[in-house]
Amino acid sequence: MQVCDVAVIGLGAVGAAALYHLSKCGTSVIGVDRFHPPHTLGSSHGDTRITRLSVGEGEQYLPIVRRSHELWRELERISGESLFEQCGVLVLSSTPHYAPEDAADFTNRTVRLAQTHGIAHEMLDAEQIRQRFAQFATVLDTAVGYFEPSGGYLRPERCIAVQLSLAEQQGASLLKGETVSSVTSDVCGVTVITNRRTIKANKVVISAGMWSRELLAPHFDHLLRVCRQKLFWFQLEKGARFAETSPVFIMRHGRTDDDMSYGFPPLAGEGSVKIATEQYEQESTPEALERTISKDEEREMFETHVNGKLAGVTARVLKSAVCAYTVTPDSNFIIDKHPTLQNILVVSACSGHGFKHSAALGEALAQWSTTGASDLDLSAFSLARFEKESAP
What we know:
This protein has 392 residues and is of the alpha+beta class. It comes from Pseudomonas graminis.
């Protein structure tokens, strides 16, 4: 039996941040993970993750990512590690059918949010995109780009490792390689049972990613889906020309969301660029998730999203990886108290766009666990919205 004020289940992006902030304020805290984070078996790996202020998914995210940017810089000062590369983010539409009034276009949504909230940015036409960023020499004449200098990319494995290390230095207990089998609560607190021990806590934060559904069943069965995602690192051509400071990019090159990809600048010494897409049609489970990318998938990715769209990149894949997004019906977060169990806060699923927000979410969860409220307004992510949708 181990006893603590707060237990955190799942030490990925959000769990690691919560553990760090709880330990920072002197709370007795235990973190549990079935693997040894940072690892490549969940949703928080892949070398780089995008961060930007104008989050096209909705304005409710802006205060969270603003605070996260502050916290990433604070963590860099404390740890001496480089976590946040502010190379800028280019969101562009390069389609024959681009229309400035199209509210569904991701670039347009990004621009309108930036304009509404005063986020510094530049608008670029096709010729300006080509001149400034040589890798986009093939964009169509109808292309339009939004460049946000405050954006860039995070190093997810480093972010998690730094926060877990600092948390441990501040007194947190880390239980790695332990699987939680049940979480129950009563008037005496919350009981967490793993394959090795029992933990008694006053409060529990569950941030278990794609394992949340089985842990939280049956209440979350209809709310969480696991979707397999593919990441590719394509080799650069010899002498490939990229801008001296290349941005992260999000590109739409067709009519549908399937015609979108995102990528990162070449990292020093690697000779490759990471390019990926998102898909939400095919579901899986943690046990059945196919973690190997096939040659057919490599060819399809190159022909659909790279060839003719990004200059200086070959079809050769130097490495690839699979991660899993746990997705809600509206693709927004769930951050709320458990509907039937007291003193348990459920956070996630982050639906594939959570890492950029994780630092501030960890701080908010620590505040909730110690004071019952957080500085951030997280009401947009409550379970009540699903009750309203299902009501007659």
